[in-house]
Amino acid sequence: MADIHRHDYADRERLAEALAAGVAAKLAGGLATRGHASLAVSGGSTPRRFFEALSRADLDWGSVMVLLVDERLVPPDHERANAGLVRRHLLQNRAADARFVPYVVDAHTPAECARLSEEAFAQDGHRLDACVLGMGTDGHTASFFPGGDLLTEALDTRSHRKVLPIYAQGAGEPRLTLTLGPILDARFVALHIEGDEKRGVLETALAGTETAEMPVRAVLHQSAAPVHVFWAP
């Protein structure tokens, strides 16, 4: 099992500020040592406060690349597009200068979308400084859904693929996702969860090892670096 660092907060506002401070510190380290930094973030409703707190961080945002851990294969202006969430809540204030690289969602096939997205991400050419994951009540993280058609391939750390299309009945739309390799390779890996239900899901995930049943276990059990779990009621 990875080294799990638990960070519990009394409320979601304090969690957002603490997670933003931790991510900003990692980005600042990348900027100081290499002149650039990169961040992968997740969608859904959970990260909005975190995004807004991070957007105020005093960083050289023009040298920061922001990308998504995963995305739904919907038009960019669709209400369920994770890219829209990032634009509305993170790419504002000081972070308005960040270089956002969204997934390609308008190619002919999901496989082509994945290939073009991987090429776009590869232009940066270095490992992620920070990767912030979410988790569903079904135990998924990124778009690693139980029953996903390419779940085995997405969790194969020996693969050279960094982006794959994936479809699962519980996911709704087909999706694109970073594979497990670049997630585990990030210099800082955080799992951001809120509420008692998800805390219970986390405890169940930590107690077992079957990744097909709860794919979040692939992160919790395989990461060579510590996994920082941020939780609030």
TrEMBL record:
Pfam families: Glucosamine_iso (PF01182). It catalyses: 6-phospho-D-glucono-1,5-lactone + H2O = 6-phospho-D-gluconate + H(+). InterPro entries: 6-phosphogluconolactonase_DevB (IPR005900), 6PGL (IPR039104), Glc/Gal-6P_isomerase (IPR006148), NagB/RpiA_transferase-like (IPR037171). One of its GO terms (molecular function) is 6-phosphogluconolactonase activity. It is an enzyme of class 3 (hydrolase). Its EC number is 3.1.1.31. Residues 11-223 form the Glucosamine/galactosamine-6-phosphate isomerase domain. Belongs to the glucosamine/galactosamine-6-phosphate isomerase family. 6-phosphogluconolactonase subfamily. This is 6-phosphogluconolactonase. It comes from Roseitalea porphyridii. The lineage of its organism: Bacteria, Pseudomonadati, Pseudomonadota, Alphaproteobacteria, Hyphomicrobiales.
